[in-house]
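Example 3.2
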Amino acid sequence: MNEIKVVIISKSENLPPMQCNKLFHSDEMFKIIEKTPGQKPYMVIAYDDDKIVAHMLVMLRRRGSLFPPYLFTQGRAYGEGEYTPDCNKEEVFGEMLKCITKELRKALCLYIEFSDLSTKMFGYSKFRSNGFFPVHWMEIHNSLHSMKPEKRLTVKIRKSLINANKSGLKTKLATTDKEFSDFFKILKNYISIEIRRYIPDSKLFRDLLQKGYGNIFTTYHKDIMVGGCLCVYSETNCYMWYLASKKNFYRKRTNAITTWAAIKHAYNQGYDHIYFMDVGLPFKRNNFREFILSFGGKPVGTYRWFRCSIKWINKLLSWSYRE
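Structure, written as tokens:
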């Protein structure tokens, strides 16, 4: 391999032809983000001579906060990107990470977050050398190819599903604009009470659904929508991005029957796994994690990597999350 050249592109008309398999690093996702209010895409491309050997999509999000600085930007990447089989993956990633970190710092990005890496230790030294610090995280995925999902259910979740049906809860795929809007209202209200609350502009999800990259499952009680979830699909896997339900209305039953509908649909469509994208920090007691595990998923301890552009804050957080 010759010396790697890294190029960062922020406009879709400048994108070269690329082989894209992963949705979260594809040119299609780049174009969708480009058209989404409050977001800006950066495609980091690594060349070996004239050959593209890797590419990685990083999103710059504009966010609001109840506390200072009130308005700020966050860099976000899901996974480490895509690579050709013959390249040195970690070395190329290190070059791309160094370049995008500098670019986002120039863009006054407050902090950068990397999640959903292929392995726990991937890029460990590269992240460290670029000022990132790791936070222990928990991920859960259900295998759909080796056993029917019904056989993985715990007794507790079976009872919840029986009670959900007795309560008259029904789940279906959203097909109309009104169903999308009603689900988004529920999602916004649900996310607003979460500590790590953030939801992109609805245009991002509308475009994903229109292009066939996802589905919304909506749950009703007597023709009133009470919950739902949003799933996206990449390669042979399904990813549950958001799950939400109305307050004080059979919340556990609603979430149970909604999640179950998404799992069954992914299984029937032949996907290998369903991943739950944000189970949260690995606290000893985590009700949402226990709920997701009751469907028979596999918990995996991993890292999320963060870097704050304010040096003293980054040092403080690095010390707080030291291993």
